[in-house]
Amino acid sequence: MRERPTGTKESLAGSLLLAHPSMRDPNFRRSVVLMSVHNAEGAMGVVLNRPMGKRLGEFSGDFALGPLAGVPIFTGGPVQTEQLVLAAWQARDDGFRLHFGVEPDKAIQLLAEEGTEVRAFVGYSGWSAGQLENEMAHHTWVVAAVPEDLLDHAQEEMMWRTMLGRVGAEWRLLADEPDDPAAN
């Protein structure tokens, strides 16, 4: 996994944004964001490591009975927190494939395919035109490739530590740094 240069003009869609260890914004502190869109108009993704501890069947009566009832729900980000976003991941021989913002019928179809995982997100993470580029220029995020074993990792803060640690030894040290330096 390599860190992409912060001044890059290429799209970050399909990458992970790992919150810099110094980030204090509670919406993104120690977060792992999977980017689905990044272009001149803005960027969008979902936070992968904020499980809500609920399943779709508990969250909405629309899903109480049926194949999506057991789909885990995550806090996807601070934008449109009343919106439910369904996403499916497929680990395939030709790489990792993301289906973002799928309709329930399509999610059911994908869920039936081997190697597919479906998740629900309440809200999403979004940036207006130039906003993410500005944050990147201020070293707010560390960019990493999506590893094949992404979904095999713990889905809380430990995922952030693991992904950041894979970027390099110096990042591993920063990821393991305690919040309170006295606890070091």
The helix-strand sequence is: EEEEHEEEHEHEHH
N- to C-terminal separation?
Answer: 27 Å
The CATH homologous superfamily of the domain at 15-84 and 124-176 is named VC0467-like
- DSSP strand tally: 9
Structural class: alpha+beta
Oligomer: single chain
Judging from the principal axes of the Cα atoms, what is the shape? Answer: globular
Q: Provide the CATH architecture of the domain at 15-84 and 124-176.
A: 3-Layer(aba) Sandwich
Radius of gyration (Å)? 17 Å
Q: Explain this structure to me?
A:
The chain has 184 residues and is α+β, with helices and mostly antiparallel strands. The protein has a domain of 123 residues: VC0467-like, CATH 3.40.1740.10. It is 20% helix and 36% strand. It is built from five helices and nine strands. Strands 1, 2, 3, 4, 5, 6, 7, 8 and 9 form a nine-stranded mixed β-sheet that branches. A hairpin with a 2-residue loop joins strand 2 and strand 3. Helix 4 packs antiparallel against helix 5. It is globular, with a radius of gyration of 17 Å. The two termini are 27 Å apart.
